[in-house]
Design goal:
The structure is a single chain. The chain has two domains: 13-77, Ribonucleotide Reductase Protein R1, domain 1 (Orthogonal Bundle); 79-109. Helix content is 63%, strand content 0%. The chain contains five helices and no strands. The radius of gyration is 20 Å and the shape is elongated.
C-alpha cells in the first residue's frame, strides 16, 4: 500500500502496547514460560522463545519484528526523549546533506 502524506517525514506509533499483545499473542504467551521473568530472549537458559525458534514453532523474523515494535513503542512512550532524538536525527540528516553538497561542489572543479 502506498500512502501519500505531503509534508510528513515519518509516521510513528503512539501507545501500541495493546495492539502488540494481540498481534504477537503467540510470542507473549511463549514468553510467560521463560525461566526468568526478565528474559531478554537472547541467550538465557530456559528461554521458551529460543526453544520455540529451535523447534521451528516460532520464526526468528517474527521475534525480531516483535522486539523492534516493542522497543519502538517504549521509546515513543518517553515523549521528551523521543522528540529530542527525532530533532537530533533531522539535524544529523541536514549536516550530512550539507557535507554531500560541499563534496559534490569540490569534485566539480
Amino acid at each position: 500500500m502506498v500512502i501519500d502524506t505531503p509534508g510528513m517525514r515519518e509516521l510513528g506509533m503512539w501507545d501500541a502496547a495493546g495492539g502488540l499483545e494481540k498481534t504477537f499473542s503467540d510470542v507473549e504467551e511463549l514468553s510467560t514460560n521463560c525461566r526468568f521473568k526478565d528474559c531478554s530472549h537472547t541467550s538465557e537458559p530456559g528461554c521458551a522463545i529460543l526453544s520455540a525458534i529451535e523447534s521451528g514453532e516460532l520464526s526468528t523474523g517474527r521475534l525480531n519484528s516483535y522486539q523492534k515494535l516493542k522497543a519502538e513503542n517504549a521509546y515513543a512512550e518517553d515523549t521528551e526523549s523521543y522528540l529530542a532524538a527525532k530533532e537530533q536525527k533531522f539535524k544529523d540528516i541536514s549536516i550530512f546533506a550539507k557535507q554531500i553538497k560541499i563534496r559534490s561542489k569540490n569534485y566539480g572543479r
